[in-house]
Amino acid sequence: MPVQEMAVSPVKSLYWEQFPPMSQRRVYCTPVYHEGLIYVLGGCSETGTPLDSVEVLDVESQTWSQLAPLPTARAGASAVVLGGQVMVLGGMNQQQTPLASVEMYHPDEGKWETRTSLGQPSMGVTTVEKDGKVYALGGMGADTTPQALVRVYEAEKDQWQPTTSMPTPRYGATPFVTGNKIYMLGGRQGKMPVTALEAFDLEMKSWTRYPCIPSRRAFSCCAANERSLFSLGGLQQPGPHNFYSRPHFVNTMEEYDLDQGVWIKPSRTSRMREKRADFVAGCLGGRVIAAGGLGNEPSPLGTVESYNPVKRRWEYVAPMPTARCSSALLQMTSMLFVIGGVAQGPSNAVEALCLQETV
């Protein structure tokens, strides 16, 4: 489909909606959406301690409820919905060590149940639910080494089975599912950002390597639409080809064309309007959105910008009501929820960038 046919909503059709705040301020929490409800699991409190608290937001009535606490307090966990139940796995415990435990919430019964653990403790696991199976990819182990493990959960047997490992060990990677492939973009190995782009074929159970992200940036963000993957912003480290003597924020955008299998040569207008890192990114109304984060300002950014893939340029959108970095993002079809994060300290703000329905 030619780019011209791609529907891009006007900037004015994007607006922020403020939801009531969470009862608990949290950063590195894990949100998951199911049937009109947003579950917010764990995270770190103001004191930096992992939380066992779980809150659920009814999106339509804009009301919060407290749920039964997690059996294991955790921050930086991963979560998916499987068969109408909420599964949470891995993350960091109160002793600051990775967890192997897996817990499942039954909304009908209102209680948590412990399931078979991952086998190896892991933080920053990338999880994908596909066709009734959960894929847990990579993570950071107890000795802080990045993992290449890929495990598949089968609910009927309550078992994790190993499958083909990733070519590049990493944690905190962003997954994108297209057809029968899981693309893995970015992530980290300790302090080193990963540039590898790899895809797992769910039928062949094999990995394919694709061209790497052209530039290495820490705290960058990834997003995807139907035809491209995007690597945005971040903090660039000084290097041999780089005249900066210390890390600096960048407004880089690198776009990978899925059909052509290449990173598109950037143009002058493809750079973001602002240099930012540790922000949130998603897609809404045919646009790539970048919101908040840290930049060359003393406090977190509230600015929001959107990339129009037809005009191939960035345009400002209404700013976030609460300027924040390190937030959790929940992508829905016509809403992008930005949950918690850091404003002055950990935040309890819940705000959504919404797409005005055009009649």
Classify the fold: give the CATH topology of the largest domain: Neuraminidase
* Percent range of helical residues: under 10%
Strand order of the largest sheet: 1-33-32-31
Which class do the helix and strand fractions yield?
Answer: mainly beta
Overall mean pLDDT stands at 94
Number of helical segments? 0
Low-pLDDT residue intervals, each spanning 5 or more residues: none
Proportion of residues in β-strands: 35-45%
- Quick one: how many beta strands? 33
Gyration radius, rounded: 20 Å
* Shape label: globular
- Can you summarize the main beta sheet? 4 strands, antiparallel
Overview in brief:
Helix content is 0%, strand content 43%. The protein is mostly beta strands and 359 residues long. This is Kelch domain-containing protein 8B.
Describe the structure.
It is a single chain. The protein is an all-beta fold. The protein has three domains: 13-115; 130-212; 214-358, Neuraminidase (6 Propeller), CATH 2.120.10. Helices cover 0% and strands 43% of the residues. It contains no helices and 33 strands. The chain has a four-stranded antiparallel β-sheet with strand order 1-33-32-31, with no helix packed on it. It is globular and about 55 Å long. The two termini are 25 Å apart.
